[in-house]
C-alpha cells in the first residue's frame, strides 16, 4: 500500500519523470537550435563615416564597410550559419539604378565578405529594390502607381547577376513579384552563375512587424503600402501556392516571413516543401522582445532562445534573426 491507498502507484503515466533535472531534459529534447541554423541579417550603408545605431532595434546598426566586416567576423567566430546583406545606397532613383551597379554598396560589401568570411559562413544577398527606389516600392512603377511586375523582373535578373559577380553565395529575392524566381534563375544562368542558389522569400506577408526594418533599411514606401504584392495575413492556401510556384520556378530554398505570427505557415510549408525551409524573425519581433526586456517585463535571453526553439520546432531549418551572433554564443 502506498499513500494513495492504491496497490500500484497512481497515476501510472508520469510525464514529469522525464523533466527531473537538466540532464534528462536535454537527453529527451525533440528540437535543437545550433549556431549553424542561424542567419544574421545585416545593413551596410554607403557614405557614412561611422556605424549608425538603429533606434528601434537596440544593438543593431547601419554598418560602414569596415564595421560590417568586423561584425561578420564576429558572426563567423560564433559559428553562425550565414549572413543576409541589405544595402542602403547614397542615391535613389525611380528604377533603383544603384542596386545592380557593380560598384554599388552591396556589391562592394559582398566582395569584402566573400573574401573575409566566405569560407566560414554563407554570404547571402537580399535581392529587392525598395532600398534603392526613390518611391520606396519593390520595383519600378506603372503610371497608375502599381509596381510594374514584368519590368521589375528584368531589374531583378540584372541585380542577381551583379550580386553573383560580386561574390554572393546565395541570392534571396524578397520582392514578391510574380515569376521572380524564374526570371532570376534565367538571369543567373545566362551570366554564368548556374551554381548560385536562390533562397526565395516565397511566403512573405504584408506585415506590421516590418516597422523597425524600414528605419534600418530606409526603404519605407513613400505612398501606399505593399499589400498589392505581399500576401494577405488572412491566407494559408495562398502561401502554399506561392511556395509551389517558387519551387517550380527553381527555388533552391524557400522562406516564410514574418515568423512568430506565422508559425502555422512555417509548419505547413515545412511539412510539404521538397526544399529546405527558412523563416525570418523580423525586426518587429526583435523590437518587441528588446523593448519588453528593457522594461524588465521579460527575461531577454530566455525569450530569445525560446522563440528560436519555436521556429525550429515548427520545422524551419534556418532562422534569420538579428540575435544570430549573440544566440550562437549562448548556444555554445
Ligand atoms: C524589403 C524587405 C523587408 C524586410 C526584408 N526585406 C521590408 C518590407 O517588405 O517592407 C523586413 C525585414 C524585417 O522586418 O526584419 N523587401
Ligand atoms: Zn522590397
From TrEMBL:
* Recorded superkingdom: Bacteria
Q: Which reaction does it catalyse?
A: 2 5-aminolevulinate = porphobilinogen + 2 H2O + H(+)
Entry-linked InterPro entries: ALAD, ALAD_AS, Aldolase_TIM
- Name the pathway: Porphyrin-containing compound metabolism; protoporphyrin-IX biosynthesis; coproporphyrinogen-III from 5-aminolevulinate: step 1/4
* Pfam families referenced in this protein's UniProt entry, alphabetically: ALAD (PF00490)
Keywords of the record, alphabetical order, are: Heme biosynthesis, Lyase, Porphyrin biosynthesis
Q: Which GO terms describe its molecular function?
A: porphobilinogen synthase activity
Q: What is its EC number?
A: 4.2.1.24
Q: How does it assemble?
A: Homooctamer.
Q: What does this protein do?
A: Catalyzes an early step in the biosynthesis of tetrapyrroles. Binds two molecules of 5-aminolevulinate per subunit, each at a distinct site, and catalyzes their condensation to form porphobilinogen.
Membership in a protein family: Belongs to the ALAD family.
UniProt name for this protein: Delta-aminolevulinic acid dehydratase
Organism encoding this protein: Nocardiopsis lambiniae
Amino acid at each position: 500500500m502506498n499513500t494513495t491507498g492504491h496497490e500500484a502507484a497512481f497515476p501510472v503515466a508520469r510525464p514529469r519523470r522525464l523533466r527531473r533535472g537538466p540532464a534528462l531534459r536535454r537527453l529527451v529534447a525533440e528540437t535543437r537550435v545550433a549556431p549553424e541554423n542561424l542567419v544574421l541579417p545585416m545593413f551596410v550603408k554607403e557614405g557614412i563615416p561611422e556605424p549608425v545605431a538603429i533606434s528601434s532595434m537596440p544593438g543593431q546598426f547601419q554598418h560602414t564597410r569596415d564595421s560590417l566586416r568586423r561584425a561578420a567576423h564576429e558572426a563567423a567566430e560564433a559559428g553562425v550559419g550565414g549572413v543576409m546583406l541589405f544595402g542602403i545606397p547614397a542615391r535613389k532613383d525611380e528604377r533603383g539604378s544603384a542596386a545592380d551597379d557593380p560598384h554599388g554598396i552591396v556589391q562592394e560589401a559582398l566582395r569584402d565578405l566573400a573574401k573575409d568570411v566566405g569560407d566560414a559562413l554563407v554570404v547571402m544577398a537580399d535581392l529587392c529594390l525598395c532600398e534603392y527606389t526613390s518611391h520606396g516600392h519593390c520595383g519600378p512603377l506603372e503610371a497608375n502607381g502599381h509596381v510594374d511586375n514584368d519590368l521589375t523582373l528584368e531589374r531583378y535578373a540584372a541585380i542577381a547577376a551583379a550580386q553573383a559577380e560580386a561574390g554572393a553565395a546565395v541570392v534571396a529575392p524578397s520582392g514578391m513579384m510574380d515569376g521572380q524566381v524564374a526570371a532570376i534563375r534565367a538571369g543567373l544562368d545566362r551570366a554564368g552563375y548556374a551554381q548560385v542558389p536562390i533562397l526565395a522569400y516565397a511566403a512573405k506577408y504584408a506585415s506590421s512587424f516590418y516597422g523597425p526594418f524600414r528605419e534600418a533599411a530606409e526603404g519605407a514606401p513613400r505612398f501606399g503600402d505593399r499589400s498589392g504584392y505581399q500576401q494577405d495575413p488572412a491566407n494559408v492556401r495562398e502561401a502554399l501556392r506561392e511556395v509551389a510556384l517558387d519551387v517550380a520556378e527553381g527555388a533552391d530554398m524557400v522562406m516564410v516571413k514574418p515568423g512568430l505570427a506565422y508559425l502555422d505557415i512555417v509548419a505547413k510549408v515545412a511539412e510539404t516543401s521538397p526544399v529546405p525551409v527558412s523563416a525570418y524573425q523580423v525586426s518587429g519581433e526583435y523590437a518587441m522582445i528588446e523593448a519588453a526586456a528593457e522594461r524588465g517585463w521579460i527575461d531577454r535571453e530566455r525569450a530569445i532562445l525560446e522563440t528560436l526553439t519555436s521556429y525550429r520546432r515548427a520545422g524551419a531549418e534556418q532562422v534569420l534573426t538579428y540575435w544570430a551572433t549573440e544566440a550562437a554564443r549562448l548556444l555554445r
